[in-house]
Structure formats: C-alpha cells, structure tokens
Amino acid sequence: MKEYVYADNAATTKLDKDAFEAMIPWLIDEYGNASQPYAFSRKPRQALEEARATIAACVNALPEEIYFTSGGTESDNWAIKGSAFADCDHQTTITSLLEHHAVLHACEAIEKMNYPVVYMRPTNSGYILPDILENHINKKTRLVSVMLANNELGTIQPIKELCKIAHAHGAIFHTDAVQAVGHIKIDVRELDVDMLSASAHKFNGPKGVGFLYIKKGVTIHPYIDGGAQENRMRAGTENIASIVGMAVALKNNCDALEANIKHIMHLERILIRELNEAGINYVRNGGASKLPGFVSLSFPRKDGEVILHRMDLMGIGISTGSACNSVNKEVSHVLKAIRLDESLAKGTIRISLGKYNTEEHVYKIVDALKRIVK
Ligand code: PLP
Description:
Elements: E1 5-6, H1 17-28, H2 42-59, E2 66-69, H3 72-85, E3 92-96, H4 101-112, E4 117-120, H5 130-136, E5 141-145, H6 159-168, E6 172-176, H7 188-191, E7 195-199, E8 210-214, H8 229-232, H9 240-255, H10 257-277, E9 283-284, E10 294-298, H11 304-313, E11 316-317, H12 333-337, H13 342-346, E12 348-352, H14 359-373
Parallel strand pairs: 1-11, 3-4, 3-5, 5-6, 6-7
Antiparallel strand pairs: 2-8, 7-8, 9-10, 10-12
Helix pairs in contact: 1-9, 2-9, 3-4, 10-14
This protein binds pyridoxal-5'-phosphate.
Pyridoxal-5'-phosphate (PLP) binds near residues 72, 73, 147, 199 and 324.
C-alpha cells in the first residue's frame, strides 16, 4: 500500500513505539487497581507515581502538582469550571477568542450559571498582547485563561507577561498548553502559571489521557466526584497503561526536543521555499512567534474543503482548521477572531508537520498543492 502522508499533527500524532511497549504490561499482566491495598496493586501504584514524577520533571513541576485526566478537553473544563465553582463571589473569568472550544464552551457553561466571562480579541496576527489584557483586567478578575499556542495558527502567546499582569491584579492564570507540551520547552515555574492543560495524543502518547498542572496552594473545586483518587480531586480508577504511555512519550519528546525542533523547522523551510518557487499565490496566517511545523495558508478564491479532499485522494492528510471543527462548516472562530477576509478564510488549510515527517513528505505536499491550487 502507498504510504499515506500524514501532515495533520496538530489533530493528533502517531504513538511513540517506546510508549506503546511501555503500556503493554499494564494491560495484560499487571492489571491491578492502583487503589487496592494488596500486593498485586503495588506495582501499578508505583508505576502511577513514577509516571507522575517523570511528567512533573518534564515541565519543572512537583509530582503532587500533576493531576491525571482524560485529556485536554477535561483539563480545560476542570480549570475553568473548578476555578469558578470555588468562588462564591462569582468574579470574572477573562479568556480569548482564540481559545479551543474546550475552553470557550466551558466558559459559556459557567456564564449560564452567572459567572461572568470576558472574551479578548487577538491582534490580526493571532496574539493576545499584554496591553490587551491590561485593558480588560481589574480587581474583580478571578481567572485569566489564555492558550500557550493556538491550534490553528500555532501562534505562541506571551504567557509569562500575561501571567505577571494577572497576578498583579490578584487573579490566577490558566494556560491551555495542549499544542505546546512536548514540542517546545515548557517550564511552569518560569512561566509562573497556576494551571496548565496537556493532552498525551498531541505529543505521541495515547489518546484519552492528559494532565492538569495545578500549582501547590491554588484552590479549585474537584472535577469528578467519587473515589479518593488523584488526592481526592479527580475520582475514577486510574488508566495506568495510558498514564505510563503518556510519561514515556513526553520524556522521549522532551529528551529529543532540540533535535525534533531542528528537523521540523528544516521541513517547514523546505515547504515554504518550494511553495514560493512554484509561484503559488497564498497568504500565510499567524506571526513569527509560533510552534515549529505549523503552517496556516490561505489561497485566494479557493475552497479549503476541496483542497483537503483532493489532497486526501492523493494520499495526504491535512486540515482546513481544527480537527474538532470538521463537522462545523462555518469559517473557524479563530480565523474570524483575527479578522481574516472571508474569501481567504474559506480557502484556508492547516499543514502541521511532526517528528515522523520527512523531506519526501514535504515534496509530495507541495506537488499536490501545485496541482490543486495553481
Ligand atoms: N486544546 C487545544 C488547544 C487543542 O488543540 C485540543 C485538541 O485539538 C484540545 C484542547 C482538546 O484536547 P483533547 O483532544 O485531548 O480532548
């Protein structure tokens, strides 16, 4: 079978082989429930705590600051709702129009419960600059939630500066780092964030598992009621195999971070050079500070959906916007937020390159685009 060129790594990533192998024993032989007191549960419990320590070390957190979840969506929902439900004064949440629906829809849900939310508009390049936050924040702000890197544009937000502003006004800061963790250096102490969401399947780990970093001393409401797991903050029998797989995948990506970035940036440069040499007419969205391998392109008077399907027929997987939006045929909320002209927005595709992509893949992508849009 002809190799499928997968260039939609922002939607999900291929499972790291070491992660897969590390998961197997916890599914087949060591299947004990980590919460039970007998000997058979000792190893799974140990594996759980080792995974927590590994993940904590990768983002410079303490192990007890890492809470396992079912992925990015749950981590975001927990941060937004858990912070609101711990606040009897119903103070304001500030977020941005760039956020993933996991944050935006969680914010809409708390608004219906009378917790006010303010939505900041980004610049036309897709950034929430410090003065934008300054214009919205006040002493009644409880939480600021701004994503670390956007899932359509790849734009990296000035989180450290935004966090400083939030803290100066007595607010806490959450960042959805789902697209960034395992791809660029993340240091929760240096950023000084209070909460950070991550999802394993975005960094070559398994699907359906992630974590929420909650800084020691930050109070939020538990998310799922039930047993005493995750320090009584998130009930439910732990998904040991997936958690172990997540830790191995994250450590592998963090250990090879510089090499992966170098490789992916090399591919991105080839992609742009070849597009230019082919004389293809496009607009590139986003700005200079962005994740490696993220390429959002708008083709004037073209249809992104058509490009996607024609590329799929040629054996290439790309996206028109975010994968979570594939059923919604409207122009994406991110492209609207950056005020992209509607005719350009409709002709927008997202190519997201990953560590398993090769130069050959990039040449195939460019060849396909030449045939479709030129
Ligand atoms: N946040 C961002 C920025 C994302 O890109 C995604 C997934 O696309 C999510 C949250 C949701 O993560 P998950 O798929 O693990 O629920």
